[in-house]
Design brief:
The complex is a heterodimer of chains A (1150) and B (345). Chain A is α+β, with helices and mostly antiparallel strands. Chain A has 31 helices and 52 strands. Among the domains of chain A are: 206 residues, Rna Polymerase Beta Subunit, Chain: C,domain 2 (Alpha-Beta Complex), CATH 3.90.1100.10; 121 residues, RNA polymerase Rpb2, domain 2 (Dna-directed Rna Polymerase Ii 140kd Polypeptide, Chain: B, domain 3); 68 residues, Hypothetical Protein Ta0175, Chain: A, domain 2 (Alpha-Beta Complex); 219 residues, Dna-directed Rna Polymerase Ii 140kd Polypeptide, Chain: B, Domain 6, CATH 2.40.270; 101 residues, Beta Barrel (OB fold (Dihydrolipoamide Acetyltransferase, E2P)), CATH 2.40.50; 82 residues, DCoH-like. In chain A, strands 21, 26, 27, 28, 29 and 30 form a six-stranded mixed β-sheet that branches. In chain A, strands 33-46-34-45-44-49 form a six-stranded mixed β-barrel. In chain A, a hairpin with a 2-residue loop joins strand 5 and strand 6. The longest helix of chain A is centred in the middle third of the chain and has 27 residues. Chain A is globular and about 100 Å long. Chain B is α+β, with helices and mostly antiparallel strands and 345 residues long. The longest helix of chain B has 28 residues. Chain B has eight helices and 18 strands. Chain B is flat, with a radius of gyration of 28 Å. In chain B, strands 1, 2, 3, 4, 15 and 18 form a six-stranded antiparallel β-sheet that branches. In chain B, helix 3 packs across helix 8. The chains are: A alpha+beta (1150), B alpha+beta (345).
């Protein structure tokens, strides 16, 4: 009875408990307001800026300290030491010692690099005295726009405007030689972490890629035939693991076995390895080192070159163990204990994996990945260049100092900033990252920032590329990883080869930078972790012991894991620890991992304690009033960052209603799991997923406004929409990325119906009057550049005025648009083949001065021998005339004068131009219809676009239907509706508005045909949809040719539209004709219309003759004239030149 | 017979489709009906009731006419009646942010107050500006800083710039030939004086000569004399059964306000009555309710057109409609001539 009662009580209690925790969690109103607050402090490209700032402020100093001294062999008293290094603010050296600050826009216009000098303070020996020099410039560093060294840093809109910069531009890119280049985010497997995987031979393997400032090596522990081995690049053979332990100085077998574990199953697995060591007769450390030394590859240079003589082979082996194998695990004074524990734990993991106690690691899991950003990549490159710079200095010093000179040797005079300056600029402007010390050779690291539309630019800044080969056909790395949730956009990836390998950041993702480790270690020690070097294996692997690792290094062990984790989290939430430090446990391995390294993906969450979110409505109100910022939320422990690994340890509720007892965190807003490009799709959660992916690609091709400074820019190609409009159905993301201020498209009234037959295959019907009124009208700017080159013989290009016809006193037609200075006038309309810049190049550019003097002295012609100049004009080539928008004369970094011209075309949509809605529904214009022929509704409204309803069933873009409803309701009410992902205005509400305003609740109207004047038989879905005009326009693509240019060598028609080429009858088409038997057609297409050529063939010798004469036979008796392709004749002659005689034998036609 | 009559004269709105949309009353189609064209009958049936007419808009009922003819008027109003619009822009100076082509496009769309009937079509080969085919305006505006503007904003002229917004009021008519005597200056010019053309900032200036020609809407929408001309058919709402109280209220809510009225019958119930079907915009909302669906029938009267014309401003809408009728007549004459000619040949 009593027992039962108790039970009852218990159950009652638990119910009560549940009730309490399930006490309705009040939904936090407007908690999305945290998103703009977050973006305010960590903008869309903040990760780039943070990373670059970290490099410029911190890492560059670390690099300097690591390479601080330059010593030389020839003079032991000489030294040079860097005391300080600093990046100044961007400036330009205009020559004559004039240095002035420069703005990014000037760099863009003048084709220069936006870079800042790196200045160092050094201390060195000059003669006998010690000298300190301050502010020496050792090179120039390209500066990331909007970073802390940029002139735009923390400037307001007015100041930006003065610098001709758009305040909405995100920054985060570089300007080198006038082009804007982005260093893409690179995805990598994280360094210094153990990974258990299966190798190619299906063996379990535990690998670590250890990376330190100096080296980057990969070490693996694997099992083969019951024994364990260690594999490393610097070793010719894999070494039995026990020998490694012995070499570490752990000579007793028991100790070794204990380090790996005292459990029976482990000892069973490991005993074979111990036996093997005995069989090899290795018992002591010396023996083991000797064994290792026989397996070493010819040593890397740093040991062999200058110091090897002083080292024995055993010392080298010891050195390798200490600094090459597991390089990231510190070995202090040759105490290998830590390394031994580390190695042992790897062996342990392999054994556990073998026995199925732990799972193998997933390489595609985002917790195992790190993202490399601009700062890190530049740091790698800079260190390499800095080292090269120092060795260069060292070489010079080494050479010059021993020679006795009148003048004292002064290092500062030999500083050549070019190494660093050019090295950085070339790397960024080509995208080839070559780092010698890591033998790293990467291509395509940087890309030109796409300025096709504002979204394209933002999309590029959040893009992530993988180092994975694009050609390999494995699905793993390409498929969507569950750990990607909230970190990377699930929609935004290209189609085709880059699919799944090129990704984009989600809206709230942040990427960490490095955090100092030392304070963390001290903190951990204060929190009671025990020094692992003091423990034996039994203690380490005791039941309640957890090994504590910091960034992949063992820092100790604890038997109170919960306390440690809780205290670290507590300190982090209180703000005593950096907010980006993460802790998580591996329960099976009994490891607590603390991470403070760079490149981890993380995002903020609302903290939930005891089933109640810490953020309340009160807090949000304070945020809305501006009394709080996101930083306050962090500091007060209301919100915290979780990285992917810690996310795995947390219990995160998406909505308030999902919160239960176990919940630890609450999502801020689910729409933030999409990126910037996918975020602009209204109602994406109603669409078929690939459609959202298509829109992500197409949004980048949409024309619109680019920036407030778009008219100041001088891009090679710029597409602008004349009347861009705000989205009638917008999303929170659109507001957050300021797309409303620079939209790319127009709200078109769409009727979903079929019309004529010109709307098949997604073609659209456009209303001509809408086009007359400016719908889809766009401006295309194209840049043309002429550089006035200088030549070695001191001559240079010239521009001359227009050629004037003597009779009419008017310039000839080609020169009609030129001003008197020989450059086309602004506002002039130029036609095909008219000259834009009348440039002349001197005929001789190589003749030396002396030669020239010689020639002048003999012929006494003047230096400005005009007839000798060649005409090299810049000609306008486009069948459609353009207007000259801008002419700019300036000089670039090489002091070359350049003329930049901007031509403008205003285009109205025509048949064949491409349009798309925001739902991956692209289509070309199939017909342009007069307004009076268009159907109209009872209000007299005609559609701008008629879209065929067949576009819907197979595409399943329900979002587009809802967008139309939202747009229609918005227009009727005079407000903008929201179509935010996983939220947005509900259809019911939209329908209510429609009903209220006297419209059908489905959005279907009664239309009247404009042709017959009678009502249409069905109701038509009718309303506004946001349409984008894409950059693909017929005018740039249409091409046809009857006759035209031929290539010089083969005399066949040229290829490609730009060369007015022919349309190729390809191999497959040829096969069709062969199959059909149309031989004469083939002959006509492949020879007569291509490269027919008449040759004389001698039928006696079978060789070519000419003029009816065979030179070989010295006769004209048997020479016939035949027609063959010129390419065939060419082949025969080329074969002849290789001593092969092709002979042609002719027969008379029957 | 009643249903056949319905098919002939009514378009029925169902929940998901529209029935009997095409007119079928051509001669010989229905036995027992004489559908031959009878001018007297037509005259008797044709009614025009003007319900609203002002300088720019009109709404009138056109009853007893075929859809094809009503549509012809609509199409002609939109596409074939001429009006004057800026066709060429000579740019002397344009330092505004708008490129020349965009500025010209904007100017072209400005509706002009000029009677197109007093002008003739421009002969495209003729480059001379003649008084009977061309109107010329000048638009010369330069923006300056406002010296009176104070930063503290106490001054009346808060705008720190002078002429920062260029409106149509800045357009200045330049008469050529006898135009100065032929037209009064208030007769010629933009229809509205507050159309924003371009925004300027100090130092920016535009100096343009605007050349206007006569054209038709088919050529370019700017020549269309109407904003839009369109019609809708007169709705007819039939209550098949009497509807009372809650259902009646529900029904009232389903239509635009004023369409359905409630009246008290003697038994203390409120009954729904159709009062102004004209106001209904065919939302078919009532058909959604099962209770109401079977009680009502929504129709449109086939030959009752509620025609609306919004003039751009150059001519009054009634004048436009008369011109449209004249154009239709001239087209008919032309057709008859052609037929006669062919017969004679």
């Amino acid at each position: 009875m009593g027992v039962q009662k108790n039970k009852n009580l218990d159950s009652h209690d638990t119910v009560d408990d549940l009730d309490q925790s399930a006490a309705p969690v009040k939904s936090i109103e407007d908690k999305w307001k945290l998103v703009p607050a977050f973006l305010k402090i960590k903008g869309l490209v903040k990760q780039h800026l943070d990373s670059f700032d970290y490099f410029v402020n911190t890492e560059i100093k670390k690099i300097m300290l690591a390479n601080q001294e330059i010593l030389i062999e020839s003079d032991p008293s000489f030294y040079m030491r860097y005391l300080n290094i600093e990046v100044l603010s961007p400036c330009i050296d205009e020559g004559f010692n004039i240095v002035r600050p420069i703005t990014p826009h000037e760099c863009r216009l003048r084709d220069m690099s936006y870079s800042a000098p790196i200045s160092v303070d050094i201390e060195y020996i000059r003669g006998k005295e010690r000298v300190i020099r301050k502010g020496l410039v050792i090179g120039k560093l390209p500066i990331m726009l909007r970073s802390c060294k940029c002139v735009l840093y923390q400037k307001n809109e007015a100041e930006m405007a003065k610098m001709r910069e758009c305040p909405l531009d995100p920054g985060g890119y570089f300007i080198t030689r006038g082009t804007e280049r982005v260093i893409l985010i690179q995805e990598q497997i994280s360094k210094n972490r153990m990974l258990i995987e299966k190798d190619s031979k299906d063996r379990f393997q535990c690998t670590v890629t250890s990376t330190t400032q100096q080296t980057k090596t990969k070490t693996g522990v694997y099992e083969s035939k019951g024994r364990y081995f260690l594999a490393h690049n610097s070793l010719t053979d894999d070494i039995p693991i026990v020998i490694i332990f012995k070499a570490y100085g752990i000579q007793s077998d028991q100790e070794i076995a204990e380090l790996i574990g005292f459990e029976d199953y482990i000892l069973n697995c490991f005993s074979a390895s111990i036996e093997e060591c005995h069989r090899l007769g290795i018992f002591t450390q010396i023996q083991a080192l000797k064994y290792i030394s026989t397996k070493m590859k010819s040593l890397s240079k740093q040991f062999s070159s200058n110091q090897s003589s002083r080292h024995s082979r055993i010392d080298e082996a010891r050195e390798i163990l200490a600094h090459i194998i597991f390089a990231h695990v510190p070995v202090i004074e040759y105490n290998y204990k830590l390394k031994a524990v580390y190695t042992a734990s790897m062996v342990r993991r392999v054994i556990q994996a073998q026995l199925g106690l732990v799972n193998i690691d997933d390489r595609d899991y985002y917790g195992n990945k790190r993202l490399e950003l601009a700062g890190q990549l530049i740091a790698l490159l800079f260190e390499d260049l800095f080292k090269r710079f120092n060795t260069e200095l060292q070489k010079i010093a080494n050479k010059i100092i021993p020679r006795q000179r009148a003048q004292q040797f002064d290092v500062t005079k030999h500083i050549r900033p070019d190494i660093i300056t050019n090295g950085l600029v070339i790397a960024i402007s080509t995208g080839n990252w070559t780092i010698k010390r890591f033998k790293m050779e990467r291509h395509g690291v940087t890309h030109v920032l796409s300025r096709l539309s504002y979204v394209a630019g933002i999309g590029m800044m959040t893009m992530i590329t993988s180092q994975f080969e694009k050609t390999r056909k494995v699905s793993g790395p390409r498929s969507l990883q569950p750990s990607q949730w909230g970190m990377l956009c699930p929609s935004d990836t290209p189609e085709g080869e880059g699919c799944g390998l090129v990704k984009n950041l989600a809206l709230m993702t942040h990427i960490t930078t490095d955090i100092e480790e030392k304070p963390l270690i001290r903190l951990a020690q204060n929190l009671g972790i025990e020094d692992i070097t003091m423990m034996n294996g039994e203690e380490i692997y005791a039941d309640n012991m957890f090994i504590v690792m910091l960034n992949g290094n063992i820092i100790g062990a604890t038997n109170k894991p919960k306390k440690l984790i809780d205290s670290i989290r507590f300190l982090r939430r209180k703000g005593y620890l950096n907010e980006f430090i993460s802790v998580y446990t591996l329960k099976k391995q009994r490891v607590i991992n603390i991470s403070s390294d760079s490149g981890r993906l993380c995002r903020p969450y609302i903290i939930v304690i005891k089933g109640q979110p810490k953020v309340t409505n009160q807090h949000i109100q304070e945020l809305a009033l501006g009394q709080k910022t996101f930083i306050d939320f962090l500091r007060q422990g209301l919100v915290e960052y979780l990285d992917v690994n810690e996310e795995g340890d947390s219990n995160i509720a998406v909505y308030e209603k999902d919160i239960n007892k176990e919940t630890t965190h609450l999502e801020i807003e689910p729409f933030t799991l999409l990126g910037a490009c996918a975020g602009l799709i209204p109602y994406p959660h109603h669409n078929q997923s690939p459609r959202n992916t298509y829109q992500c690609a197409m949004g980048k091709q949409a024309m619109g406004a680019i920036g407030y400074n778009q008219s100041q820019r001088c891009d090679t190609l710029l597409y602008l929409l004349v009347y861009p409009q705000r989205h009638l159905v917008k999303t929170r993301t659109i507001e957050l990325i300021n797309l409303e201020k620079l939209p790319a498209g127009q709200n078109a009234i769409v009727a979903v119906m079929s019309y004529s037959g010109y709307d098949i295959e997604d073609a659209l019907i456009l209303n001509k009057s809408s086009l007359d009124r400016g719908f889809g009208r766009c401006i295309v700017y194209k840049k043309q550049v002429v550089a006035m080159k200088r030549y070695p013989n001191r001559s240079c290009d010239k521009i001359k005025g227009p050629l004037i016809n003597i009779d009419t006193k008017k310039p000839k037609w080609e020169h009609e648009v030129l001003d008197m200075d020989g450059i086309v006038g602004v506002g002039e309309i130029v036609d095909n083949k008219q000259v834009l810049v009348n440039k002349y190049t001197p005929s001789s550019t190589t003749m030396t001065l002396a030669e020239q003097q010689n020639s002048t002295s003999t012929t006494t012609t003047n230096v400005f021998a005009e007839p000798e100049d060649k005409e090299t004009p810049l000609v306008y080539r486009n069948s459609v005339p353009a207007c000259i928008e801008k002419v700019m004369l300036t000089s670039n970094h090489e002091d070359m004068f350049i003329v930049k011209l901007l031509t403008r075309q205003t285009r109205r949509p025509e048949i064949g131009d491409k349009f798309s809605s925001r739902h991956g529904q692209k289509g070309v214009c199939g017909l342009i219809v007069q307004q009076e022929d268009m159907p109209f509704n009872d209000y007299g409204m005609c559609p701008d676009i008629i879209m065929n309803p067949h576009g819907y069933p197979s595409r399943m873009t329900i979002g587009k239907l809802i967008e139309l409803l939202g747009g229609k309701a918005g227009v009727l009410e005079g407000k903008f509706h929201y179509g935010t992902a996983f939220g947005g205005d509900k259809i019911v509400d939209l329908s209510k508005v429609l009903i209220e305003k006297g419209f059908n609740y489905l959005g279907k109207d009664l239309l009247t045909s404009g042709l017959t004047g009678e009502p249409l038989q069905s109701y038509i879905f009718f309303g506004p949809i946001f349409y984008q005009k894409l950059k693909h326009m017929v005018q740039d693509k249409m091409h046809a040719r009857a006759r035209g240019p031929r290539s010089v060598l083969t005399r066949q028609p040229t290829e490609g539209r730009s060369r007015d080429g022919g349309l190729r009858l390809g191999e497959m088409e040829r096969d069709c004709l062969i199959g059909y038997g149309a031989s004469m057609l083939i002959l006509e297409r492949l020879m007569i219309s291509s490269d027919q050529f008449q040759v004389d063939v001698c039928n006696q010798c079978g060789l070519f003759g000419y003029n009816g004469w065979c030179q070989f036979c010295k006769s004209s008796s048997d020479v016939a004239t035949i027609k063959i392709p010129y390419a065939c004749k060419l082949l025969f002659q080329e074969l002849q030149s290789m001593n092969i005689v092709p002979r042609i034998s002719l027969k008379t036609q029957i | 017979m009643a249903s056949l009559n319905n098919i002939r004269t009514r378009i029925k709105l169902e929940e998901t489709e529209v029935l009997h949309t095409t007119s079928t009353d051509f001669p010989g189609n229905y036995p027992g009906y004489d559908d031959r064209l009878n001018l007297d009958e037509f005259r008797k049936n044709l009614k025009i009731q003007i319900s609203n007419l002002d300088t720019t808009t009109t709404e009138f009922d056109l009853i007893g006419i075929d859809a094809a003819i009503a549509n012809a008027f609509r199409r002609i109003l939109i596409a074939e009646l001429p009006s004057m619009a800026i066709e060429k822009v000579h740019v002397t100076e344009n330092s505004s942010v708008l490129p020349d082509d965009v500025l010209a496009h904007r100017l072209g769309l400005i509706p002009l107050h000029a009677d197109p009937r007093l002008f003739v079509d421009k002969v495209s080969s003729d480059t001379k500006e003649r008084e009977d085919d061309t109107l010329i305006f000048k638009l010369k505006v330069a923006c300056k800083k406002n010296p009176k503007a104070t930063t503290d904003g106490n001054d009346n002229s808060k705008n720190p710039y002078i002429n920062s917004n260029v409106y149509t009021e800045h357009m200045e008519w330049i008469p050529i030939g006898n135009q100065a005597t032929k037209f009064k200056s208030e007769d010629v010019g933009p229809v509205s004086h507050d159309i924003l053309i371009v925004k300027l900032r100090p130092g920016q200036e535009i100096d343009l000569k605007l050349v206007c020609h006569k054209g038709i809407g088919r050529d370019h929408a700017k020549f269309s004399p109407v904003c839009t001309a369109s019609y809708r058919l007169m709705p007819e709402i039939i209550l098949k059964k009497p509807i009372y109280d809650e259902d009646a209220e529900q029904l009232q809510k389903c239509f635009t306000q004023g369409v359905i009225e409630l009246e008290d019958d003697n038994k203390g119930h409120r009954r729904a009555v159709v009062s102004k079907p004209r106001l209904d915009m065919c939302s078919r909302e009532a058909l959604r309710y099962p209770a109401l669906k079977d009680c009502i029938e929504l129709n449109k009267i086939r030959d009752h057109f509620i025609f609306s014309i919004e003039s751009v401003g150059a001519l009054s809408p009634d004048q436009l409609f008369i011109d449209a009728i004249k154009l239709v007549m001239s087209k008919c004459d032309r057709l008859l001539q052609e037929i006669d000619g062919n017969i004679n040949n």
